[in-house]
Design brief:
The protein has about 170 residues and is α+β, with helices and mostly antiparallel strands. The protein has five helices and nine strands, in the order αβββββαβαβαβαβ.
Length: about 170
């Protein structure tokens, strides 16, 4: 089981209201952009654009622009849109040949940035885990503390300065 665990790709996701970054630890591909999404108008909304292109895409199409991580009291304000943003970044960080094929489900470490008053609630921590699973992860760890190194991410052994929330 440990052998299989070590073969799975690891994605390190850092989330904040101003930036999302996804690092594919194995390939060292880093995708970093604004956590914004543009949704088409109409009865069946579709994602038009994610990241820096979202505000322009929303303006040009008459669609809706949103930042699902931009709520003042909670890290995730809209789960469905947050899922669309994270899936987009995970696909961008995947190895080139896997973008259209089914990629192996990665291990994902989600690191919410910031330190809210009173810490993150159990609801927020669970929502982060569910977000990772919805974005295709086989296993999700939620980490709070300093940024993790590639070695820590590969081994799954995290430093004492910080804590695994889930």
């Amino acid at each position: 089981d440990a052998m299989l665990h070590s073969l799975l790709p690891v994605y390190y996701v850092q989330l904040s209201p101003t930036e999302v970054s996804v690092l594919n630890v194995k390939s060292n591909v880093l995708v970093r952009d604004l956590p914004e999404v543009a949704i088409s108008p109409g009865a069946k909304p579709t994602v038009l654009a994610v990241g820096r292109a979202a505000s322009q895409a929303a303006a040009q199409s008459g669609g809706v622009w949103a930042n699902p991580f931009g709520h003042p009291q909670s890290l995730i304000s809209d789960f469905v849109l947050a899922e669309a943003v994270l899936k987009h970044f995970v696909i961008q960080a995947a190895p080139a040949g896997w973008k259209r094929l089914v990629a192996p489900s990665p291990r994902m470490v989600i690191h919410p940035l910031g330190d809210p008053d009173g810490g993150y609630t159990q609801v927020e921590i669970r929502a982060l885990r569910e977000l990772g699973l919805a974005a295709g992860a086989a296993h999700v760890t939620v980490w709070q503390g300093r940024p993790l190194t590639s070695e820590e991410l590969k081994s799954g052994v995290f430093p004492a300065e910080g804590r695994v929330l889930l």
